[in-house]
Amino acid sequence: MKTTLCSLAAAAIFTAATTAQAEDKTLVIGTNNWAENIAVANMWKLILENRYDYDVELSDVSKNALYSGLANSDFDISLEIWLPNTDARYLEPYKDQLEINGAWYEGTGLGLVVPSYADIDTIPELKEQAEEYGYQGSPSILGIDSGSAIAGLTDEAIDAYDLPMEQVNSSGPAMMAALDAAYQQEEPIVVTLWSPHWAFAEYDLKYLEDPKNVYGDNETIYWFSRPGFTEDDPWLTEVLNAWHMDDDSLGGLMAEIEQAGDPVEGAETWIEDNQDLIDEWLAAGE
After folding, report:
1. What is the mean pLDDT of the chain?
2. Are residues 202 and 114 part of one domain?
3. Residue 49 domain boundaries
4. Buried (b) or exposed (e) across 22-49, using 16+ Cβ within 10 A?
5. Which intervals of the chain form a coiled coil (predicted)?
6. Mean pLDDT of 54-68
C-alpha cells in the first residue's frame, strides 16, 4: 500500500511537471504590421516551434492594443519597441508594468522619403512643391495606419513645417504599392518610411532632411514583455537577449519574405541559409 501511494505521488508530480512544462512552451507574440516586425515574428515562431516544440501564436493588433494587452498579460512578448523616442508615448502609461529587455537592432531611421530622382532634399522644400506631390487630386503624404507612431510624427511634421498637404493613411502594403507605381513611372511621391525596411534594397530612395528634428535621431529596437515573463521563461529571455541583427541579416530576411510573397516561406528560406547565426543566439540559453 505504501509503495502504491508513493508511486501515485510520483506519477502526480511527474504529470504536474509535464503540464507545467507544456504550459511554459505556449507563447503569444503581439505583432504589428511593420515589415521588420512581421519578419522577425515569423522567424522566431518557426525557430521555437521547429526546434523546441513551443506553441507560438502571432496576434496582430494596433499599437495601443499591443501595449495594453502586454500589460494585461494577453500577450507574452512583443519583438519591437523603438526607444528613446518613437514608441515612448505608447510605453508611458505602462512603463511600470512592462519589461524592456535586450536591444537587437541599432541605428534606426524614420521620416519622409522620396525616390532619389525627385528634385527635392528637405522637408521645408515640400511647402513650395506640394502641388507636385498629389494623390487623388490633393497634395498628400502617403502613410501607414493612423494609429502608428510614424503617422503621429508625420502629423506633427505637417504642422511644424506648415505644409499645405494632408497625410493619407492606409496599410503598409497599400502605401508600398503606390510607391512602386509612382517609381515605375518616375513620378513624384512622398511616403512615410523607416529603416530597417526592404524598400531601401528594392528602390533607390532618400530621406528628406528634417532640420527641426521632428522625427528624432537614430534609435534602438528592443524586445519587451508582459509583467513577470523573464522569470517565467528565463531560457527564452537569455536567447532573445543574445539576438542581434544588422542591415545585412535583417535586410536579407525581409528580402526573402518580399520575394516569396509569404512571411512563413520567406523566413523558412532565410533560416535554412543562416543556421550559424541562429545557433549563436540559441547558445546563450545553454
Report:
1. 90
2. yes
3. 15-107+218-283
4. eeebebbbbbbbbbbbbbbbbbbbbbbe
5. none
6. 96
Report the DSSP pairing between strands 109-115 and 191-195.
antiparallel
Which of 163, 182, 207 is the C-terminal boundary of a domain? 207
pLDDT at 85: 86
Label residue 163 exposed, middle or buried (CB < 10 Å: 0-12, 13-18, 19+): buried
Task: Report the alpha-carbon distance of residue 45 to residue 224 in Å, rounded.
Answer: 16
**CB-neighbour burial class of residue 134 (10 A; exposed 0-12, middle 13-18, buried 19+):** middle
**pLDDT of 21 above 70:** no
Helix (H, G, I), strand (E, B) or coil at 102: strand
Mean pLDDT of 166-175: 93
List the beta strands (DSSP E) in 121-263: 134-135, 138-143, 166-169, 191-195, 205-207, 220-225
Q: Where are the beta strands (DSSP E) in the chain?
A: 26-31, 55-60, 77-83, 99-106, 109-115, 134-135, 138-143, 166-169, 191-195, 205-207, 220-225
Q: Which CATH number is 138's domain given?
A: 3.40.190.100
pLDDT (0 to 100) of residue 23: 46
Q: Are 281 and 239 in contact (CB under 8 A)?
A: yes
The answer to whether 248 and 105 are in contact (CB under 8 A) is no
- 131 secondary structure, DSSP code: G
Q: Cα dihedral sign for 50, 52, 53, 54?
A: negative
Q: 126-167 pLDDT, tens per residue?
A: 999 999 999 988 999 999 988 888 999 999 999 999 999 999
* pTM, two decimal places: 0.74
Considering 162, 183, 207, which residue would you say is the last residue of a domain? 207
